[in-house]
């Protein structure tokens, strides 16, 4: 899923006040983290994930892995925080701006 620059800016604004709902610890991006991220995306559409201090995974690689597994778009990576977006199949809450 690809997002335009305008859509990413809009989603970053919505994500600003969100707290991380998924945490990756020293094991990195495990199957449990992938499943949890998928589950949270089904409920929220837009989520923040936090890579813990003990996580040795590269943040870009971790974001790519999670986005591929969840079929989501990477909105932003700041420090060890990743923001992902995936539109709900039924009753989407977030309406993305057009170009």
Major sheet details: 4 strands, mixed
CATH architecture: 2-Layer Sandwich
- Briefly, what CATH class? Alpha Beta
Task: Output the CATH topology.
Answer: Translation Initiation Factor IF3
The number of distinct helices, counting runs of at least 4 residues, comes to 3
Ranges where pLDDT stays below 50 over 5 or more residues in a row are: none
Q: What sequence of helices (H) and strands (E) makes up the elements?
A: HEHEHEE
Question: What is this entry, summarized?
Answer:
With 99 residues, the protein is α+β, with helices and mostly antiparallel strands.
Protein topology:
Blueprint (H helix, E strand, L loop, with lengths): L4 H11 L6 E3 L6 H14 L1 E6 L7 H12 L2 E6 L2 E5 L14
What does this structure look like?
By secondary structure, this protein is an alpha+beta fold. The protein has one domain (5-85): Translation Initiation Factor IF3, CATH 3.30.110. The protein is 37% helix and 20% strand. The chain has 3 helices and 4 strands; from the N terminus they run αβαβαββ. The protein has a 4-stranded mixed β-sheet with strand order 1-2-4-3, with helices on both faces. β1 (22-24), α2 (31-44) and β2 form a beta-alpha-beta unit. It is globular and about 40 Å long.
Note the main attributes of this structure.
alpha+beta, 37% helix, 3 helices, Translation Initiation Factor IF3, 4-stranded mixed β-sheet, 99 residues
